[in-house]
Records
---
Amino acid sequence: MTTATETLLPGTDIVLEQLPKVSLHDHLDGGLRPQTIIDLAAGIGLELPASTAEELGAWFAEKSNSGSLVEYLKTFDITTAVMQTAEGLRRVAHEFVLDLAADGVIWGEIRWAPEQHQQKGLSLDEAVEAVQAGLDDGVAEARADGRTIRVGQLISAMRHADRGLEIAELAVRHRHAGVVGFDIAGAEAGFPAGRMRDAFDHLAQSFFPATVHAGEADGLDSIRGALLDGRALRLGHGVRLAEDIEISTENGTSYARLGELAEWIKDRRICLETSPSSNLQTGAIAQWGDEMVDHPLDLFYQLGFLVTVNTDNRLMSGTTLSRELALVSDAFGYDLDDVLTLQLNAASAAFLSVDDRETLTDAIIAGFEPFLDAEDAR
């Protein structure tokens, strides 16, 4: 029998929370606990659409199932509103780490946009420092409870604003104090990576890694821009790259022809940070269908792309990384070896040093081995 915090790998008795995992695409303002929102809202007089944690969680899930990224993003008005003080940011970051650790995450990259947290007078640096203090609190508490976890901040610049260079400089300034990478987020269509070319130039000159949201609410041109203008090492979501893959069938056998863009991304091992539930909610995969089995994740996986599974926003999708892995395993018939491959993919794409990536890879393999041995013995 499972508890409310246990998610089984379909067809097995393996509890996915017990497996070591890597989370590459997880937004700080999309992972708040509903009760925390209620507590913080009371302190600032913010009116909420629900009065209990259960009802508020259900409200977020309902509002996030719009099929539109623009509508989906409106739910963040509430979460960011309670994250405008150092105390609020520190608490949210602290709990964020604890929730990742409880899910078995051993390396987590936590992305957020400091420019959205200055309404109460925090400077950009103060906001980053507050979040880092919370992350450190969470790591220390998790380790005291016997859990192993490390985390890093991904600093995001909002695509529609004109603060890209300022935010890139902020990220680089904190590279030795918890920040491991840069991102651009927000409304994708109409706001290409090229608008922030100066920011990406600064990052490149500083040898600082970037991931770019691309191929979620816009198509192949957005992905090209992420690579050419953004020098992206990873693509946030990237699911519409499937538009550059042509499938044909001959004598009952399916063949895939990759366009130049898809071929480049595959051959250069540029990571795709898919977030299956979120991609369904925002309509990112609408041209292929509206069920998990329609997600191009499996196409990428079967063709050998460096594809990963992520949560995007755990509050809005009512999910965890374990749940996402269970959903895709159920949809595509993945077994424990496939789940391991997905985690090794994520480890290889982490914004860590080569030595740290190798250590992370070893930890994942060691954590999976007892379960693989048990499966082999059956």
---
Amino acid sequence: MNGQDARDHQRGGAAGEVTTSGEHSCEHGHGHGRDRAPEHGHDHPAGIRGWLHEVFVPHSHDAADSIDDALEASSQGIRTVKISLVVLGVTAVAQLAIVAVSGSVALLADTIHNFSDAMTAVPLWIAFVLGRRAPTRRYTHGYGRAEDLAGLFIVAMIALSAVVAGVESIRRLADPQPLDNLGWVLGAGIIGFAGNEAVAVYRIRIGRRIGSAALVADGLHARTDGFTSLAVVLGVIGVWAGFPLADPVVGLLITAAILILLWGTARDVGRRILDGVDPALVDRAEDTLGHVDGVNDVTDLRLRWSGHRLNLQAALGADPATTVAETDALTARADHHLRHTLPNLGRVDLTVISSQPHRT
């Protein structure tokens, strides 16, 4: 109902259904006492097992640090993509210089592969730009889902990398080929690994900060390319040590690692597309709303990601005698507390309904 209808309906003091929605930022930070929801944590494996889990199947970190301004988050994503393109471009150019000196056809193919992989960031760049556009009458929810489409493309590229690496490794096992200019190839592999891993760490860190599953996936894609370069390094070392089949064997191991990484990436991107969220976020939202003064219960709580923005809707039960002014104050408090406890919160739709307080 509109504002006037709500006032007419509640003039006698009975609480009706009043909805508030919006997206704003809180420019001040402070604690909320009992209204503050507990911090969210995750149990990760410890030691070497934990490190391997973080490298190959990193947690999606839906509950990342809060960024209130959607445009600023998109700008960070675009800036990350630009810097990544420069770093990967420099890496590929350095490898190309080694190709010119060594004349290695295999290294030339790997360099071309790195150039093409660097360009996979372009769809993500386009997605971030689209995500900044205002909703239209056709796309009433905006264009945030463009990030999820870019994430699907990146997952496909990771799968392609696994197929190419696996086929090439099997081919070399069946028909071993001597490696020439091992010193130059080793140097190119180190450059490729360093450049791709630096980009991977940067993309994953920023992607988690702004809540972008697609940017995290793109970081993992760069990591797969780094693994491929690392396989070259380990293969050269193995050949020097007297194991000529070390190169294809290591290649198969790297292929297995890429497949494990692919599973984690496809899982996170797929969950976003199906409107899946970390259940801990639902718990945090429910706990936060339940501690707001005047709220008797919380029902119909729903969360969904739109790109890197988290949207929320819920029905708040309040005393039937709650006035319109008190309802407005209640929803304002609830919105305020939510934005201090949930990450990257965008649109919030809160409906206040009549509800008796729970008796203990």
